Amino acid sequence: MFCRYFCFFGLCLFLPTQRRCSLGHVSNLHGSDTTSLPGFENLTMGYNKYLRPYFGGEPVQIAMSLDIASISSISESDMDYTATIYLRQRWTDPRLVFHGNKSFTLDARLVELLWVPDTYIVESKRSFLHDVTVGNRLIRLFSNGTILYALRITTTVACNMDLSKYPMDTQTCRLQLESWGYDENDVTFTWLRGNDSVHGIEKLRLSQYTVEHYYTLVSKSQQETGSYPRLILQFELRRNVLYFILETYVPSTLLVMLSWVSFWITLDSVPARTCIGVTTVLSMTTLMIGSRSSLSKTNCFIKAIDVYLGICFSFIFGALVEYAVAHYSSSQKCAAKAPQEGPVNELTKELEEVNITNILNSSIASYKRKISFTSIEISSDNVNCSDLTMKTHEKIKCVLRNKMHRIIGYFTIQNPSNVDHYSKLLFPLFFMLVNVFYWAYYLYF
């Protein structure tokens, strides 16, 4: 059985012959005659790893492809993502051409003896090359001088996120590869097969996101030291909103609906209505704090979920204020009725109604007299301001007095029980309208 060793920079590769080589020459194991291994002399003679292929001439064309093994985490607070990728680079070095049509997979340690591109990941915060059990690198040499160089890398890359529509947002992230020292006069970057150069990303299963689509770009980075080639993988991530609907949107909506229960409880049940109002307000506050705890470092954003929680809190607080207004008006009315209580007949009832009306009018009048607007006393009756004997400043006072009288009369609650009656209709109606505008805006605009 014949065997042959192909020596590459002092290291020998096993080939089917009986001879042994050293530094590009072959020696017979049993004799003294020596011949060169055809086609491999140029691998060791005159090779300089510090000079790129075609040095001083045309740029080296480097074709790349990617396999996305995983995207382990996407952080909104740090605005980055962590991915494990298989980066494959191909280029042709005419100094490594040999005869034949075979390819050889060399020991990864031989990379230190070859010229390789100085590719780096733009916007990378932390990166490392896997080295278990050995450095996860691959070097393969083809007969036409083409070199395949593959790496397994885990990197954390910055991704600028717009969280204004969180959690109904779609984020666009990039993975950018660029030459560090060689400008476009020395190297050019291309994708090996366009969009088909990227694999694995369509099979990813992420906890909060779904990969919508991705595409590749070829660009240049203009720096002070020159123009550098850059390859871009851009992909869009759509957040899965169902989790947030179950965790935040549904509980907050139910709390708003719970606050409406107080409208069906009589005004005299002070403990019941107060308990419902205070409990829903505190529960809503706790829910708001909990929803923001996971994004504590991005509080500068007014997110969609913050807007919805603010709307729910406003409706709950409004229901509590509604009871305070209705109860105060009811107590004022009862206080006015108190002196007129007693057994009455039909005639007495009519007189009582007249007296109550008079008392209410007198109460309103006394209340209005306490309000001053630029030292103007407000009377309970409109005054005819067209009297010719009145001076100009008196007419102005008269007009303002009548305006204030109309405004106060407009906001005066005549029947406190109607407050709950109208609230039963208005609160749900306005809440539904606000929800329609909210979801339409954040889902379609």
From TrEMBL:
Write down a Pfam family by its short name.
Neur_chan_memb
Q: Which PROSITE patterns does the protein's record reference?
A: NEUROTR_ION_CHANNEL
| Classification via InterPro entries | GABAA/Glycine_rcpt, GABAAp_rcpt, GABAAR_pi_TM, Neur_chan_lig-bd, Neur_chan_lig-bd_sf, Neur_channel, Neuro-gated_channel_TM_sf, Neuro_actylchol_rec
The listed locations are:
Apical cell membrane; Synaptic cell membrane
Q: Name one GO molecular function term.
A: GABA-gated chloride ion channel activity
The reaction(s) catalysed by this protein are: chloride(in) = chloride(out)
Q: Which residues form the Neurotransmitter-gated ion-channel transmembrane domain?
A: 248-340
Gene Ontology cellular-component terms for this entry are: apical plasma membrane; chloride channel complex; synaptic membrane
Transmembrane portions of the chain: 241-265, 271-289, 301-321, 425-444
- Annotated signal peptide: 1-21
Give start and end of each Neurotransmitter-gated ion-channel ligand-binding domain.
41-240
Q: What is its main location?
A: membrane
Print the keywords alphabetically. Answer: Cell membrane, Chloride, Chloride channel, Disulfide bond, Glycoprotein, Ion channel, Ion transport, Membrane, Signal, Synapse, Transmembrane, Transmembrane helix, Transport
How does the entry describe its membrane topology?
Multi-pass membrane protein
**Assembly description:** Heteropentamer, formed by a combination of alpha (GABRA1-6), beta (GABRB1-3), gamma (GABRG1-3), delta (GABRD), epsilon (GABRE), rho (GABRR1-3), pi (GABRP) and theta (GABRQ) chains, each subunit exhibiting distinct physiological and pharmacological properties.
Family indicated by similarity: Belongs to the ligand-gated ion channel (TC 1.A.9) family. Gamma-aminobutyric acid receptor (TC 1.A.9.5) subfamily. GABRP sub-subfamily.
Q: What does this protein do?
A: Pi subunit of the heteropentameric ligand-gated chloride channel gated by gamma-aminobutyric acid (GABA). GABA-gated chloride channels, also named GABA(A) receptors (GABAAR), consist of five subunits arranged around a central pore and contain GABA active binding site(s) located at the alpha and beta subunit interfaces. When activated by GABA, GABAARs selectively allow the flow of chloride anions across the cell membrane down their electrochemical gradient. Pi-containing GABAARs are mostly located in peripheral tissues.
Q: What is this protein called?
A: Gamma-aminobutyric acid receptor subunit pi
Q: Which organism is it from?
A: Mesembrinibis cayennensis
- List the top taxonomic levels of the source: Eukaryota, Metazoa, Chordata, Craniata, Vertebrata
